[in-house]
Amino acid sequence: MSSLTLYFHPFASFCQKVLIAFYENDVAFKGEIVDLGNPEQRAAFARVWPLAKFPVLRDEARGVTVPESTLIIEYLGWHYPGPVQLVPSDPDAAMPVHLWDRFFDNYVQLPMQKVVGDHLRPAGTQDPQGVVEAKAQLAASYAILDRELARGGLAVGEDFTLADCAAAPALFYANIVAPFAEHRHLAAYYQRLLKRPSVSRVVEEARPYRKLFPMEWPASYS
Questions:
Q1: Where do the domains of the chain lie, and which CATH numbers do they carry?
Q2: The pTM is what?
Q3: How far is 130 from 120, CA to CA, in rounded Å?
Q4: d(CA 168, CA 107)
Q5: Nearest to 189 by CA among 162, 165, 215, 153
Q6: Which helix (H) or strand (E) holds 15?
Q7: By CB neighbour count within 10 A (0-12 exposed, 13-18 middle, 19+ buried), where does 122 fall?
Q8: Residue 124 confidence (pLDDT)
Q9: Is residue 51 classed as helix, strand or coil in its secondary structure?
Q10: What whole-number distance in Å separates Cα of residue 191 and Cα of residue 172?
Q11: What is the distance between the alpha carbons of residues 19 and 31, in angstroms, rounded to a whole number?
């Protein structure tokens, strides 16, 4: 039995980022799905991590609780490594991996969540200016990524890394909020990600929860 327990939800993009890392290296773990809308589940989760934000990894064998998606993936590489090295051991090689991981989290994932979150606000409390700014950030991010990805390959060269773990769920949801088909290099990269078994697995595992999304699903997502 694995000593690792992952507190997560299959539909949450930052959780999907971590799941991709687990699946890439076939790391055994116990999944504890948390419904934050359920007061009892939320309270139980808060006893594990007081902020009650997932994903959170608990390693009983080492007595360690690890929050935050990037840190969890790095922790797996340190203590439960597999054949796919998601973060290079060489600092110079790791630098661009970390750069693009942060880029996808901060400049694709977060503005996407701003737009989605606005759809969940009660009537009269929406933030239209914030949505405009978030979509402008996505447009700028798409342009940067399209130029970067004109070389082909993955986020950083040809090897699948932490940056690709971050990119896949961020782009999956961002493409609904602000489609990027006109950015052909970015769109081609996204299609390469979808063909990755670990990525397609998290997409399918999240499918039963699509009713939670407050926006209309494009026909291409069927």
A1: 91-200 (1.20.1050.10)
A2: 0.96
A3: 14
A4: 14
A5: 153
A6: helix 13-24
A7: exposed
A8: 86
A9: coil
A10: 10
A11: 10
